[in-house]
């Protein structure tokens, strides 16, 4: 089973607000790092150069927080109870 097929088995219950907040001014290197490190593709650069955060598909793995750190991410927390990803195996 491929990674994408495995991810499709998961169930998502998105919260009303994002649990990830980025600094207002990020460098191109920080944007590129966030895009590259996230296994779920949560961070995507738009045509105008801004990065969008699709928090609804977050795997809550914390890779972005660990790699980009406080220089790029101001807030990272788990979604409220009952929201977020519900992993399904098999």
What does this protein structure show overall?
The chain has a single domain, classed as Alpha-Beta Plaits (2-Layer Sandwich). It has three helices and six strands; from the N terminus they run αββαββαββ. A hairpin with a 5-residue loop joins strand 3 and strand 4. Strands 1-6 form a two-stranded antiparallel sheet. The chain is globular and about 35 Å long. With 90 residues, the chain is an alpha+beta fold. The relative contact order is 0.28. Helices cover 24% and strands 21% of the residues.
Summarize the structure.
With 90 residues, this protein is α+β, with helices and mostly antiparallel strands. It is built from 3 helices and 6 strands. The chain has helices at 3-8, 28-37, 63-68, and strands at residues 11-13, 20-22, 43-45, 51-53, 73-76, 84-86.
Present the secondary structure layout.
Layout: H1 3-8, E1 11-13, E2 20-22, H2 28-37, E3 43-45, E4 51-53, H3 63-68, E5 73-76, E6 84-86
Antiparallel strand pairs: 1-6, 2-5, 3-4
């Amino acid at each position: 089973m491929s990674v994408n097929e495995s991810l499709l088995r998961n169930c998502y219950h998105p919260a009303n607000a994002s649990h990830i907040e980025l600094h207002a001014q990020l460098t191109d290197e920080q944007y590129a790092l966030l895009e590259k490190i996230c296994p779920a593709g949560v961070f995507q650069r738009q045509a105008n150069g801004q990065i969008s955060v699709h928090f609804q598909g977050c795997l809550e793995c914390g890779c972005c927080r660990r790699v980009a750190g406080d220089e790029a991410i101001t807030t990272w927390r788990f979604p409220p109870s009952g929201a977020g990803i519900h992993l399904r195996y098999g």
